[in-house]
Amino acid sequence: MESENKNLHKHTVHHVLAHSYLVYFVLLLLGVFLDFTFGYKILDNTLAVPLGFATLILATVVILWAQKTGRDFSKVTEAKTAEHFCRGPYCYTSMPTQWGLFFSVLGFGLIVNSLFIVIFTVISFLISKFVFMSKHDRILIEKYGDAYLNYKKLVKF
Hints:
mainly alpha
């Protein structure tokens, strides 16, 4: 337990998120390679491109909103209530940047109509959610305690 706590202190939230983004990047590259190799398509091009662009626009809005809102969090050293965390997109999800990244890579996969990119995007999201976001949550629970735990109970998505 004590060594786990020392490990948590070595990593910041941004460090954990950077590793999560790296997983997206590596699996995106793998998806592009497999797409060039095998070229499986998922949708009719007339549907894939507009759907992909709409997904990219949604992703951009979510990421920009999350980043703008997230700047306020870094200034606070102590949170006493769950409502402290409920700002902007963080009222709907505890990981809006992850959702934005997921939708942006998914949108790209739809635009290029690549089965492998879409599959690896879903895999990347699941790895991020269950591996990196759990580390992210442990760091914030250690830092903010019950306030963050209560926030996680309020925001399930």
